[in-house]
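Continuing the batch. This is chain 6 of the set; chains 1 through 5 are on the previous pages. Same settings as before, nothing changed between runs. Recording input and output for traceability.
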Amino acid sequence: MDSARTFSTIAKTVKDAGLLRRAQWFYALLGGGLFLALGGVITGFVLLGDSWFQLLMAAALGIIFTQYAFMAHEAAHRQVMASGPSNDRVGRFLGVFVVGMSYSWWMNKHTRHHANPNQIGRDPDIDPDVVVFLDDDARAQRGFMRKVTAKQGWLFYPLLTFEGYNLHYHSLRWLFQKGKLEGRWLELSLIALRFALYLGAIFAFLPLGMAFAFVGVQMAVFGFYMGSSFAVNHIGMPIIPAEARLDFFRKQVLTSRNVSGGVWANALLGGLNYQVEHHLFPNMARPYLARARKLVMEYSRQQDIPYTEMNLARAHVHVAKYINQVGLKAKEPFVCPVMAAYR
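Output for chain 6:
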């Protein structure tokens, strides 16, 4: 079968099965559940008063914000509402005002990732940051960061507790960049209002030390939950060279990893556990991903294309091993590819 027909065949099968229709009932229930959970935390915060049990409320808030981030992610993919503009409004409200991240930054970054997952020079998710994902990036590290990279296999999960700060930083950096940016002032206003209400309430009702501890726990839980949920999607899966050209179906299936576990994994990871199907059909609503999995898995078998799925614990072991293997490359000397060609 030619590459153009590889995806169109499974796409028709999935569409004929009715798996691309909207599931507004599901997101209404999810949104209502999260609203009640948030209300419960706020009530608990008020009732507990000056108590270190407030840190339990902070941890719960970190989990709830992550779940809202999952829902904002789904709205960005046009999964929640019937129209694009409605999805953007929901996604921007949840992502910016509730979670505190720039929606436009996320859309720009995440769209490029979906187009070319794990492809060098094309996927921003494998660009070097505090953690690096490519051997050459590890070898190119210098100074203090070279030492960090060499130990990143051990540091990766502890560093995820700071991922919330990293996401907020990149959001603000994006919004303060030079040039025209649609929605800049709306997002900045929503972020400012969000933090004024959130931090104002915490520092007004709690002693100073407890208030800082509350924010620290909430951000640590949010960062770790967000980071670890997205980490199992592609880290440790094949890296595609910059010059390689793969058809859409093979590119998405080969670079994505599913997490087994059914309903509990779907709830825990916000649908990200069906990463293969999400990348093939990014606008598919969460309730239909499990049925699509069966179709895609069988079709991949017929096409002799490896389909990766493992339990959550095993997935994290693979992630840690890969991060460690890349980090150890920092101990090797960096050789410029251009210079090496002329030796």
